Amino acid sequence: MKNIMNRFDIITIFPTMFVPVFNESILKRAQEKKRIAIRVHDLRDYTDDKKHRKIDDRPFGGGPGMVMMPQPLFDAVKAIKGRRKAKVIYTSPAGKPFTQFHAKRLTKAKNLIIICGHYEGIDERVRESLVDEELSVGDYVLTGGEIPAMLIVDAITRLIPGVLGKKESLIHESFEDNLLEGPQYTRPANFRGKKVPDVLLSGNHKTIEIWRNSRALALTKAVRPDLLKKDKGV
Ligand code: 9WO
User: Fold this and answer.
1) What pLDDT sits at residue 227?
2) pLDDT tens by residue, 148-198
3) What is the pLDDT at residue 4?
4) Which of 142, 150, 152 is the best mutation target for the ligand 1 pocket, counting ligand atoms within 8 Å of the beta carbon and taking the most?
5) Separation between Cα atoms, residue 62 and residue 72, nearest integer Å
């Protein structure tokens, strides 16, 4: 809670996409509690093309589609940064895989500027001179970088001290061992003939912990054995 607030600036051609996502639940509360500040910027506000607010152009050398021009992106990042230090992130399938490890590391950055790509992507000079980190959120192609940007803000924010309640934070602490969580049950103990495992009703905390760990390990081995091969993810 000593933390000065984390600030996220997002550069996009679809600013309204972020409104519903950032104004619900924990992300909303984190802003109200001043743990984070999120600013969404319309890239078109930064183009020199006053008339058509153009931000893309045809690729040199030919080929299909359009490329995001350097001018609006350079000017947007410069204006948003001001005198502050900021890390500039571009999301693309060609980036390094974004994992829990990156989410944790990026909680330390006071200001993240996330560029959301469209069309065929950004002019290479933006990548070379403006982008500090290129991150992928998975091996698939999307229609734009907006959803990856939301995802990155979400994953980082829940790790910022004071964002989650004490109970929720403890739950995430138990994930630090690269295991998936085993099955969970709530009332009733017998739902239409389907029973909760006896061990969970036993009240024996030690036995319950051993059972949970063994289920977590079995599940991880079955569906994500790669997580058990050291330093993956968390
Ligand atoms: C697309 C692409 C495909 C294969 C290899 C590299 C690539 N880079 C891009 C790219 O920069 N695309 C731009 C952003 C424009 C089209 C929509 N964009 C996008 C980002 N689609 N998918 C992503 C993305 C971002 C992070 N993690 C997974 C997917």
Assistant:
1) 95
2) 999 999 999 999 999 998 878 767 565 667 899 999 999 999 999 999 999
3) 73
4) 142
5) 22
Q: What is the pLDDT of residues 83-104, one digit of tens each?
A: 999 999 999 999 999 999 999 9
Residue nearest (by alpha carbon) to ligand 1 atom 12 = 121
* Whether the model pTM is above 0.85: yes
Residue 142 Cα to ligand 1 midpoint, Å, equals 6
Q: Is 138 close to ligand 1, i.e. is its CB under 6 Å away?
A: yes
The CATH classification number of 172-229 equals 1.10.1270.20
Q: Which residue out of 14, 92, 118 has the highest number of ligand 1 atoms within 8 Å of its CB and is therefore the one to mutate?
A: 92
Rounded to 5°, the CA angle 194-195-200 comes to 150
CATH class of 6-157: alpha beta
Structure tokens at 150: 């939301």
